[in-house]
TrEMBL record:
InterPro entries: NAD(P)H_nitroreductase, Nitroreductase, Nitroreductase-like, YdjA-like. Residues 7-165 form the Nitroreductase domain. Keywords: Flavoprotein, FMN, NAD, NADP, Oxidoreductase. The lineage of its organism: Bacteria, Bacillati, Bacillota, Bacilli, Bacillales. This is Putative NAD(P)H nitroreductase. PANTHER family: NAD(P)H NITROREDUCTASE YDJA-RELATED.
Amino acid sequence: MELSQLLRERRSVHRFQQKEVPVELATELLDTAIWVPNYHMTQPWRFIISHGEGKRRMAEAVRYMKEIREPDQSKRKETGQKFYDKIMAIPMIITVIMQENTNLIIREEDYASTSCIIHNFSLLAWERGIGLVWETYPWLLEAVFRDAMGIKPGEKVLGNLHVGYPAQIPNAQPRIPAMERITVISEA
Ligand SMILES: Cc1cc2nc3c(=O)[nH]c(=O)nc-3n(C[C@H](O)[C@H](O)[C@H](O)COP(=O)(O)O)c2cc1C
């Protein structure tokens, strides 16, 4: 597929078939996706791939966080179970983590590079018929999640990628044409 077509036809996917994405394939795609520009070559990223029974660790943490925040005592178990089941239903979750440099400028550049990896991966996956959505729910910041996943102090979680073979592909969300956002300076 032409790169331009891939870029225009990729969608964020929220609903997946109950079909495993091979870890070897995800790893192979990540190994290509990391070929991003990275000023200072800090390469600050790492990834946690959770799949199959391996999702239980995250699902249990989410269950706990959702239970303790449920104001209606009688609904706690039900609410926790709902979110547990949601996590378990996602075929593969890739947690994207970045070492936070103490230098603000390098930290921002590192965030830019790591974001490029996510989009590279998204396009490479789409080419293979695999969809994903980059999720940034607030509980990614919580100690319960971080501890469960072994995320160390000084590491930033950019998001969870929900990865799988699409059960439904959403319609395109229109973009403002770039023409409307371009200023061309041709003369002195
Ligand atoms: C940094 C970032 C965070 C995002 N977080 C979420 C999220 O938490 N939940 C979600 O449903 N989509 C999230 N998205 C996906 C966007 O909603 C999606 O890209 C946008 O609606 C455009 O749709 P498209 O990707 O299909 O073109 C995120 C995207 C980015 C770049």
